[in-house]
Structures are given as structure tokens and as C-alpha cells.
Amino acid sequence: MNTAELIYRLRVQLKQLEQEVLQHDSQLAKGQRKLLHDTERFNHGLFQQTGAQLAPCIEQISKKITQLEQLLKGNISNDTIALSCEGIHDRFTALRRALNTTSLDVKSAEQQRDARFAHAKKRRQKSHEESGFSWIASGVMHNSHQLYDELNKHLNWVKTFEQKIEYLQLKLENCHSSEKIALQNEILLVHRRLGKCRQAISYIEDRIQAFERPYKGQNR
Fold this sequence. Notes:
mainly alpha; 6 helices
């Protein structure tokens, strides 16, 4: 086989592979492109490409064939030419393999995403359990409407506790000395409940922000 025929055959093979690649890329679903957006599917020595779409690889192989063509025109050793041919062959093989493994790469990316979500959920649940507010129903933590209901409930309790403290303080000013200790203890108890309620409000507000943050990101 002479050099002209070798280059011709490589270009024909590349043209055939290009049609397969273009069909592959056109059939990619939006979700698949998003899942593989940052995925490196090749060794850096073969292709500089990231993501589900494989069309960029065609141009890179074409440049390698052009380089080989230039080598064949020059006074280059057979070993150098053989290495160039081997590199082109490896790129053809890797690209064909990628065409057949997109669905496997998508499945792997889905599993990694689900694992990240599960880990984040577990971390939030652990934070909830360690917060001291486990008495807030766990089901509330996954529903924004219930979270707001819970927030309003605690805000109303704050008002109730504040009003009760004000009433007890007024009563303390006018009570008999024998009743003062009991009233002071009661005021202290209500203050503790008020403090706990305010902590719960901060906690619920943090949960609302954590719950809504992913949805805000999707709506940008």
C-alpha cells in the first residue's frame, strides 16, 4: 500500500465514523448531556474532550491524519511513522468504544449523583438529630409548606411566652413576699421555653433555606 492510498483509506474510515458520531450526538437526551457534562471519557493522551458529545474527537483525529501525511512526505524514520499510525488506530478504537458505552457512562453518572444526594440527605438527617430539635417531626423537614406552618406555629408561641413573661413580671411586682420565689421560678421556666423556641425558629429557617436552595438554582 502506498502512502497516498493509506491516507485515503484513513480519511474514508474517518468519514464513516463521523456519520456515526453525528448520529450519536443528535440522539443524546438533554439529561444525558447534563449528567456527563464534566465527565472525561478518554485518556488525555488520546483526546481533549469532556462531556457526552463526541464530535470534537473527529476533528482531532483528522489533524493526526494530516500530521501523518506530512511525515510521509518527509525524511522520517519508519519507527516514527509506525508510532503515528498506532496513535491514529488507538484513537479510532477509543472513539468507537465510547460510541458503544455512552449508556453505561450515563448509568454510572446517575449512580454517582444518587449517591451524592443520599449522602447529603443522610448528613442533613444527622444534623437534624444532633441539633436537639428531634421533637420537630422529621416529615416536616421534607416539605416547604409544613416547614412554614411549623415556623408560624413557633412565632406564635414566642408571642405567647413573651406575653406570659410580661404578665408574670407585673404580678411579681405586686405579689406577697411568700409568692415571689414561686413566681421567679415560673418566669425563669418561661424564659427557658422562649429561648428554646427562638432556637427552633432559627433551625427551621435554616431548613427552609436548605430546602429551597436547589430549586432557586434550577430557576436561574
